[in-house]
């Protein structure tokens, strides 16, 4: 052993030495090889590096050369492009490639022009040459938006510019001086500004700071319409006012072409300022034209309200806004004060407020123009106070003070407002001349010259004055007139205008007060020429009432005649309401100027007590005007709900001598209106009372001329309203109020409408009556219609016992209700239309030879032959009784509708009949003579002769009996509805049919050629030929027999219902179907693409391909076969019912499920999120995940598997049944449980809190806590 060890040891040492030698040898060899290879690689790398360096140098040189060459080339191309841009502007042809650059150039030029043109604004009309930066004095306006009769304040540009999808016109209305032009200017400046730059005054102006809404418009065009009265089109106005002011002669035409291109392609905002100051020369157009091709343009139009309300149709208004002044008038005043003194002075601001409060000038502050005038005059040490005439007299006096320091007073002037002026009398010659110009311009029949006029027209109005130039210079220097350079290149003469329209109106009123003869001449012609003339001079009339009441009285007579003419056909909401407001405004001004009310004789005929009267003072003035015009009054309108609670109002200090006398006529108190006696208004023709109005019985007792009366909407009478003296009544609409009418009405009335309660109404003396309409509360005297009557239209919805019409009456249209008993032989003459719902036995119409339309109610018994010879009869509706109706001579009859109590002769229908509806009885109806039939409807008691139908009808509804109906020869038939008593001959249906509803019998129906078919409903007695349904079908409801139905091409299908006797070819249902109810046979149904599916019901003979149901499904009721149903995406599911042949993939049911009844297979059902669940039934092949049932479950029937069911929170259970495979967690049942059947496992079941139990069954695996059952 030892020797062997030594031998091994020696061999190991030998092998070690041998390996060591071999390793050293190979190491040395490898080292030599590595050194040699390293040297070779190093040489190779150096060689390659030098080569690459040389190649890189050569490439750099080459690239540099090519770059230089290309740079020269691109330089030439850039130069050429620049020349092309220049060529676009100055060349002879338009190059579309340069549109973008030219558009940007135009935009920048416009912004530069706007920023220069509109950056400054005159501080006041008193100082037109002293202007300040607009942003320094600007205060956001108060703007309201009118939407559906309501108003809401808007303070964002996006709300202002929100346009209607079909109408791009936005109207901004506002009275003179409210800031319309200033707001339009601010819009333009905000568009020019960069929204990324902060506005230093943005914190002070939080309103309208969303400039990004303006930057959505590529261009904003602002034009002032008063400067272009002769231009018809908006495009020409933009060219005249903007393009011509930016570009020279050589560029204008090219830029005008670009302008048209821009407005076609880009979103633009076009602002038209001052629509009321623009009238095209022909006077027919209400606004400048903008071609409809510029549909990307939004148009904002500013105007005065009268222009909008009288010249613009409602359909033309896309959006309506109203500007009422500024939100913070004292901020505007402070801005002006700071601008004047160049520093903020709190003392000035507080002193100014005290000045306003002391002189009661607050109502002027909402008008920025008046506010700036008042501030500027106050800064100069001048104070304003008093009425409108006083204020404008002071303003005019202040303007004249700048021209002539000489002052003189009106010591003996009858005009109150001029007594405290200093500078008007020394310059009275100039004032009268300027007033003359103001008058003739304002009432020029060429409306475009009313506000802006030329120097030639100025001289024409002063043609008898030698010093025209001096007068013009005086007016311009005083600031009464302004002069502008014309923007037209054809007419270089300057245009003139008054500094503001209100100043012009005041001066025109002064001229009228001094020259009353113009009222009958120029003013009368102006009012006669223009329908809205009285609205255009409302402010002037107010001034005239304060200057000369006699002239105002005379002018009111002219306006009275004008308004009466306009209001003749509009008795309610008409021009006269606005006329009343004008007179009330003038009355206030007259009283404020210390004019005795006994000298005020303003004339009117229509009086309104409604929302237009905003105060007690206005109510008193309206009463004064009514009393003063008692002999003129024709119309009185009262809306009691509009009467304010006067105890909460403060009178404006006007006293009246006849207030106590007024109280004798009416009393308005706490929102109620009591009418006592209006007998002084003897000529009153119309009175209309609405709202909370209370009348005394004799309030209207002496109105002999009363024609129209309306008493509605909670109006009451303390007794019986006496109208016994009103023999001329024509229209009475007074609801259910008891009325004492005249014993007999008489007069020349032609129309009578009674909507009231009235007993024994006698119309025998109303010989001119042509139309009578009586409501259900009217009892008519049976002999009211006499031999002299001219009645053409008679409508009696009331009652009359034994109505007798004279033999030679002229009635064309007759409508009689069920409360009238008509004498059988009373109808004759030339009547054309009758509608009788009355009672009549044995009615005979044989003498009514001109009858064209007849409608008889169910209480009428008709003589069989009474209609036989009515040759002109076209439409017949009978719901009464007639045995054996004959229509032999009714050759022109087109429509007939017969009720169930009518027996029709078999050959009674013939001639030109188009529409037939027979619900009565007819045995063997023959329609072979009715060649023009379009629609047929026959009831159950009709037997139709087969083959008697014509071929032209379009609609067929038959519930009758017919053995062997053939409709193949009816090519125009579109709608078919056939009942159970009909047997249809097999064959194809007409190709144009749109809808069919067939419950008849047919052994071989073919619809393959019905390419227009939309709706199809087939009953169980029909056999449908196999084949493909037309592609346009939308609704299918088929209970018929069919052995191979194909609906694969029905792409428009929405509703599908198929009965059990149909075999549907396998395939994919159309994607648009919403409702499926299929009990048919189908071996491979695919609904995977039905993304709009909402309701799904499938019968047991259907095999559904596995897959996921669409997420919109709400109701599922499936008894079909399906080996892998997925409802995990059905988030809107509400009801789920699945049969035993379905395998449901494990899932969590959505929270909206209310009802579950599933007998399918499912290895993991989760209902923990079904918070709205009410009823649940689960079969034995379902495994329910352990957990709590939803709290609101009422009915539980579960035979499934569940290892830990928790119902501890379910206190609303009515019935519960659990199977053997369920383990119920220990629970205390609560609530109103009535039925319990528990075969599950449960320890410690507690039923002690249940007192409504009626039935209980517990299995052996349940441990019940001891209780006392109450069953």
Write the layout of secondary structure elements.
Elements (H helix, E strand, L loop, with lengths): L1 H89 L8 H19 L2 E5 L2 E7 H4 L3 E7 L2 E5 L2 H4 L8 E5 L6 H13 L26 E6 L9 H13 L2 H17 L2 E6 L23 E7 L1 H7 L7 E8 L2 H13 L4 H13 L3 H4 L2 H12 L8 H14 L26 H15 L9 E3 H7 L6 H11 L2 E4 L10 E4 L2 H14 L7 H8 L3 H4 L1 H10 L1 H19 L7 H18 L13 E4 L6 H13 L6 E5 L19 H5 L2 E4 L2 E4 L10 E5 L2 E3 L12 E4 L4 E2 L3 E2 L8 E10 L10 E11 L9 E4 L3 E3 L12 E4 L3 E4 L9 E4 L3 E3 L10 E4 L3 E4 L9 E4 L3 E3 L12 E4 L3 E4 L9 E4 L3 E3 L10 E4 L3 E4 L9 E4 L3 E3 L10 E4 L3 E4 L9 E4 L3 E3 L2 E2 L6 E4 L3 E5 L8 E4 L3 E3 L2 E2 L6 E4 L3 E5 L8 E4 L3 E3 L2 E2 ...
Parallel strand pairs: 5-8, 5-9, 6-7, 7-8, 13-14, 14-17, 16-18, 17-19, 18-20, 19-22, 21-22, 22-23, 23-24, 23-25, 24-26, 26-28, 27-29, 28-30, 30-32, 31-33, 32-34, 34-36, 35-37, 36-38, 38-40, 39-41, 40-42, 42-44, 43-45, 44-47, 46-48, 47-49, 48-50, 49-52, 51-53, 52-54, 53-55, 54-57, 56-58, 57-59, ...
Antiparallel strand pairs: 1-2, 3-4, 3-9, 10-12, 11-12, 15-16
Q: Report how far the terminal alpha carbons are from each other.
A: 103 Å
**How many DSSP helices?**
24
Beta strand count: 79
Strand-residue proportion? 25-35%
The poorly predicted ranges are: 84-94, 200-204, 569-574, 645-664
- Overall mean pLDDT stands at 80
What gross morphology would you assign? extended
Taking the sheet with the most strands, its summary is: 33 strands, parallel
* Helix percentage range: 25-40%
As a whole number of angstroms, the C-alpha radius of gyration is 48 Å
| Helix/strand/pairing category | alpha/beta
